[in-house]
Design a protein that fits this description.
By secondary structure, this protein is of the alpha+beta class. The protein has helices at 32-59, 67-73, 84-97, 99-119, 122-133, 152-155, 248-283, 295-323, 329-353, 366-377, 382-394, and strands spanning 139-142, 159-163, 166-177, 184-191, 197-203, 210-214, 226-237, 285-286, 289-290. Bound molecules: flavin-adenine dinucleotide.
């Protein structure tokens, strides 16, 4: 990698300001106890994840070596009893370093455990959630299919047929994060009897007819292992059907909660890209001066910081709404659409500031630039979020 010409002093011989993406000090909103949890995650991401993640990203591999240290953090059970502000900032902090690791954690705790927590019976919650919270069993969430992405609300082709106390599942699920190696899959399928979407907990390793193929050659979120799940006459006991999932409306309830999480994630990605690009601009000399001293670079830096700060402010208000239990689909959709669109701008400007070095993964900007593309599309694309907002505010649905 070419030298960035380290420079430790500003022209006035004052120390340079350290890049700080929390410009409005949003962390101050948290209680002291919450801040301590966030600090623990910050240290873990900086000391354990940051030093090794580029290597795993390049190799398309998951860092299983981090599971044991993650268990020690004891954050798998952060759900009920914790504010949405803390949950959001926690996943934002993870994304500041690595959105792949955050996605693994988010799929497990948010989508998979979240489905059981929101839609499972008391017995199901007792059976699955404690071991999942301790990360002894890892979960995934299978909704998308090879031929059905944005249209999952109306057209799942995976079927569930009841035979006595057993359900028989047939179909495929595509893009399922953690699926190639995890223990439990929450699978969404259409009940052939009433045509409604129901949810099932499938034990990956012990269910005959259940197989997973790893999706290869991705250019984003390469650390996350995504799978193509095939189910051929998979038999699942009625006891593993999510007892309170009766239609896609219930699936959408889980998605609404995790979608706001993606807004926090998109904010964290921008924080990481902003800090890396600003540091680079402070150190890189051209024409005998740090490029951070050039007006056009400063404009990019200010625009990035404005994006970061706007997203943080929006997400904070969204978390307040969630903490008051007043979150609507359109609230989460607006935030997901806005923050991911700003993220695409911010990571592109960060890449631009780093010049050619911006495309090298080692500089911690190229990886975020690529990963942003996956966040922009998953958990509902920009267009679908816009259509949900459009329907709510105009009174007309453009998609169903
Ligand atoms: C890295 C990654 C991880 C993922 N993890 C999971 C997971 O764990 N579990 C899971 O179930 N899914 C997962 N997904 C799938 C993800 O949720 C889908 O990719 C997403 O919902 C979009 O579906 P699609 O890719 O099939 O795109 P499509 O639905 O085919 O859309 C293609 C394009 O058409 C546009 N479009 C579609 N319909 C309309 C319309 N009515 N009006 C205007 N534009 C429209 C879309 O916005 C998009 O731009 C993951 C995806 C990725 C990339």
């Amino acid at each position: 990698m070419p030298s960035t010409n380290l420079m430790n002093q500003a022209p006035e011989h004052k120390p340079l300001p350290a890049p700080n993406s929390d410009f409005y000090n949003i962390v101050e909103i948290l209680s002291a106890d919450e801040r301590a949890i966030l600090e623990k995650v910050h240290t873990f991401m900086q000391t354990r994840v940051a030093p090794i993640i580029n290597k795993y990203w390049v190799e398309d591999a998951f860092p299983f070596e981090l599971i044991e240290p993650l268990k020690e953090l004891d954050i798998g059970g952060i759900g009920e009893g914790y504010s949405y502000k803390l949950r959001g900032m926690l996943i934002m902090e993870m994304c500041r370093v690595d959105p792949s690791f955050a996605t693994f954690y988010g799929v497990h705790t948010g989508l998979s455990m979240g489905s059981i927590a929101v839609l499972g019976s008391e017995e199901q919650k007792q059976k699955w959630l404690p071991t999942m919270a301790r990360l002894e069993k890892i979960g995934c969430f299978g909704l998308t299919e090879p031929l059905v992405g944005s249209g999952t609300g109306g057209g799942l082709t995976t079927t569930a047929k009841r035979e006595g106390d057993t359900w028989v599942l047939n179909g495929q699920k595509k893009w399922i994060g953690n699926a190639p190696w995890c223990d439990i899959s929450v699978i969404w399928a259409r009940d052939v009897a009433d045509n409604q979407v129901k949810g099932f907990i499938v034990e990956n390793k012990t269910t005959p007819g259940f197989s997973v193929e790893k999706i290869e050659n991705k250019m984003a979120l390469k650390v996350v292992q995504n799978g193509l799940i095939t189910m051929q006459d998979c038999r699942v006991p009625e006891a593993n059907r999510l007892q309170n999932a009766n239609s896609f409306r219930d699936t959408a309830h889980v998605l609404r909660l995790t979608r706001s999480g993606v807004g926090w994630m998109a904010t964290g990605v921008q924080m990481g890209a902003y800090e890396a690009a600003l540091k680079y601009a402070q150190e890189r000399l051209q024409f005998g001066k740090p490029i951070a001293s050039f007006q056009l670079i400063q404009e990019l830096i200010a625009k990035m910081l404005a994006n970061v700060t706007a997203c943080q402010s929006m997400m904070l208000r969204l978390a307040q709404i969630e903490d008051e239990d007043k979150l609507l689909d359109q609230h989460a959709s607006l935030a997901k659409a806005f923050t991911t669109a700003r993220m695409r701008e911010t990571v592109a400007w960060a890449r631009e500031i780093c010049g050619a070095n911006g495309i090298i993964v080692d500089n911690n900007v190229g990886r975020l630039f690529a990963d942003a593309e996956a966040l922009y599309s998953y958990e509902g694309t920009f267009q679908m979020q816009s259509l949900i907002v459009g329907k709510a505010v105009s009174g007309f649905s453009a998609f169903v």
